[in-house]
Specification:
The protein is of the alpha+beta class and 316 residues long. It has 8 helices and 13 strands. Strand 5 and strand 6 form a beta hairpin. It binds aspartic acid.
């Protein structure tokens, strides 16, 4: 048994300025981040799997209205909520994903169920919901997902006829695709990502978050990665897998691979955002090319940090 373990989480990257944040709001974000981080960490501390840890951490973030996932998901063009999520473990490289689902409190739990019980990797829309019903998932009414600020963002996007990323200037008040990566005491890594996608999205738009290789990836030979940002670019850049490839084929360190992908390759494509990653030694990387990323990490060496803006982290 490997003794060390670590976990990192994110709650979305984007245009996050201190000037737009009240001390109360900042404290609220940090407190949910800390809750999620510690939910995942306590799973690892008990010797349980990294898969359990990333699921536990993401579920806390999905249950908060502050982040664009689960309860706080943004509105689609039609005024509904369509959520995407994926989860992957690095030992056998098993994964599960759902896209364009509604009414499910924790899409990440459904993604895991797809991985474990469906015989498939990726289920979408009505079919995914039918599977959820058979698996005994509860269906919540749309008002569970209603949030005043999200509603306002959707109205603004409708008025301006735009499809909005959560972190683009029109609605820079609230951010929030969520994700987690972890290494457990047994030496296995895992990653999970969950999102409501883009405000005012239509035509069944699906981003990178539920796509293994793009928004989420885990491989015990390299790293586990969860992404957030302009999904179309992350899909085209196959970002999470690209980080893994640089480590596997070019022997980059985790930090070198994350920096190359986020600060160079993604930028050249025109994409903005960030990612969190962990390698098999428990090294953690929190990389982004935006003004900020809601993020945190904790490890068995006793290190714990939470951050929002570029260049500053609270040491706990
Ligand atoms: N990557 C997500 C998507 O494109 C959005 C985000 O990370 O905020 O759906």
């Amino acid at each position: 048994m490997n003794n060390s373990f670590s976990i990192a989480i994110h709650g979305g990257a984007g245009t996050i300025h201190k000037s737009q944040m009240s001390p109360e709001k900042e404290a609220a974000y940090k407190s949910v981040l800390s809750l999620a981080l510690n939910a995942g960490y306590s799973v690892l501390e008990k010797g349980r799997s990294s898969l359990d840890a990333v699921e536990a951490a993401v579920m806390v973030l999905e249950d908060s209205h502050l982040f664009n996932a689960g309860k706080g998901s943004v509105f689609t063009h039609e005024g509904s909520h369509e959520m995407d999520a994926s989860i992957m473990e690095g030992l056998h490289r098993q994964g599960g994903a759902v896209a364009a689902i509604s009414g499910i409190q924790n899409p990440i739990a459904l993604a895991r169920r797809v991985m474990e019980k469906s015989g498939h990797v990726f289920l979408a829309g009505d079919g995914a919901l039918e599977f959820a019903k058979i698996q005994g998932f509860k269906f919540l009414k749309p008002d569970y997902f209603f949030d005043e600020l999200r509603h306002q963002q959707w109205q603004d996007a409708l008025k301006n006829d735009v499809v909005q990323l959560d972190h683009s200037p029109l609605n820079e008040k609230k951010f929030g695709t969520v994700g987690a990566v972890a290494l457990d005491a047994h030496g296995n890594i895992a990653a999970a990502t969950s999102t409501g996608g883009m405000t005012n999205k239509r035509f069944g738009r699906v981003g990178d978050s539920p796509m293994l290789g793009a928004g989420t990836y885990a491989n015990n030979n390299t790293c586990a990665v969860s992404c957030t940002g302009s999904g179309e670019f992350f899909i085209r850049g196959v970002v999470a897998y690209d980080v893994s490839c640089l480590m596997e084929y070019k022997e980059y360190s985790l930090a070198e691979a994350c920096a190359e992908v986020v600060q160079n390759r993604l930028v050249k494509l025109g994409g903005d955002g960030g990612l969190i990653a962990v390698d098999i030694k428990g090294n953690i990387c929190l990389e982004f090319n935006t003004d900020g990323m809601y993020r945190g990490m904790k490890n068995s060496k006793g290190e714990e940090v939470i951050g929002i803006y570029k260049g500053s982290m609270d040491v706990r």
